[in-house]
Amino acid sequence: MKVLNKNTDRTPKNAIYIGRPSKWGNPFIIGKDGNRAEVIEKYRKYLKTSGLIKDVKELKGQDLACYCSPKPCHGDILLELANKTKLECSVVKEVIGDVTLYLGDCLEILPELGVTTDLIVTDPPYGTGFISGRADVHVAIKNDHKGFDVQPYLMKALKTLKRGRHVYIFGPLDVSQYPLCSPAELIWDKVNFGLGDLSIPWGPQHEKITFAVYEISKVNREKNFGALTARLRKGSILRSLRAHSGRSKHHPTEKPINILQQMIESSSVLGETVLDPFMGSGSTLVAAIMSGRKAIGIEIEQKYFDLACERVENVTKALKNVQLAAHFKSTTTP
Please, are residues 278 and 298 in contact by the beta-carbon 8 Å criterion? Predict the structure, then answer.
């Protein structure tokens, strides 16, 4: 498979033309939109933002034809992507420091990850049809419609987890439906009660968090085997104000960083990998970075994915600045 010049090369009849006005044509023009290298790089980003990257698999095993070869052109990008894995081709992926973020459906992405993780901390859609008490703040959450079944998603996530390691799931969870044992119910005390259902006299002030241990053997699960000793043993009530108190800044169901850090630091060690397959605006990833862990996050909504990337980048830079300042101080102190 190669990029051929329609004018100077013998082009096979089955070669795919990728110049303008075909759908593969580069909309960026040399001179007007930058030099050759710049318009090629713009095309790489255009493939993702336009959604055209999902069709790149059509080019696998085919010769490509345009009028640029042997000079570098966007055909080189198509050639490269057509030979990559399904995950690399069809999913937007950002790597920021020790954190990898994916934009897409975790049900499709998780089987293609090809990595193992050390801890899962996540807040899946509850399938309750979340409605913000403040209509001007947040809209409905994708996949939070009534009847949404989270089980296949969590099962895919668990398959990445090392045996005997911990999971923390916000919201209701029937542990018996999963290869999990040694469950414990944690309670996040939000200190102040929220709006909730205004037709009843009680406002929600807490949220359940299910802790459990991943164990693939049913016999061992029944014996509660596989319980990894917790690094930091604490009580089951975790108190913290809701993120930004009365108003969640980034996401309608945003979780406090300090609550997430307690879970991460209780169930993993420095340098291990935390997975959040429903990362939302990236709070779990931020907590992982601040705790000295690596992290993988997956989000299906573009706006929250972009926000998560921004937050991860900001905290990564801030942490580096703190480390540089500490290093400078240690090397200059007499």
Answer: yes
Residue 145 scores a pLDDT above 80:
no
Mean per-residue pLDDT, 90-104: 89
Amino acid at 86: K
Burial code (b: 16+ CB inside 10 Å, e: under 16) for 132-170 equals: beeeeebeebebbeeebebeebbebbbebbeeebbbbbb
Domain 91-184+207-235+244-332 of CATH type 3.40.50.720: no
What average pLDDT score do residues 209-216 get?
93
What is the Cα–Cα distance from 212 to 256, expressed in whole angstroms?
A: 21
CA dist., res. 171 & res. 123, Å (int)? 7
Element (H, E) at 263: helix 257-267
Residue 4 is which amino acid?
Answer: L
b/e code 294-329 from CB counts within 10 Å (16+ = b) = bbbbbbbbeebbbbbbebbbebbeeeeeeeeeeeee
* Alpha-carbon span 21 to 38, nearest angstrom: 20
Scan for tokens 């996040």, then name that residue.
188
List, edge to edge, every strand of the sheet that includes 294-299: 92-96, 99-103, 294-299, 273-276, 117-122, 161-170, 206-214, 180-189, 237-239
249: left (phi over 0), alpha (psi -120 to 50) or beta: alpha
What is the average per-residue pLDDT within 159-181?
A: 94
Q: Report the pLDDT value the prediction gives residue 183, as an integer from 0 to 100.
A: 92
Asked if 241 contacts 188 with a C-beta cutoff of 8 angstroms, the reply is no
Q: Residue 326: CB partners within 8 Å, gap ≥ 6?
A: none
Percent of the chain residues topping a pLDDT of 70: 81
Q: How many CB atoms lie within 10 A of CB 95?
A: 8
**Which range among 39-48, 281-290, 313-322 has the greatest average pLDDT?**
281-290
| Cα distance between residue 225 and residue 228, in whole Å | 9
User: CA 108, CA 229: separation in Å to the nearest integer?
Assistant: 32
| Domain residue spans of the chain | 3-84, 91-184+207-235+244-332
Q: What is the mean pLDDT of residues 7-14?
A: 86
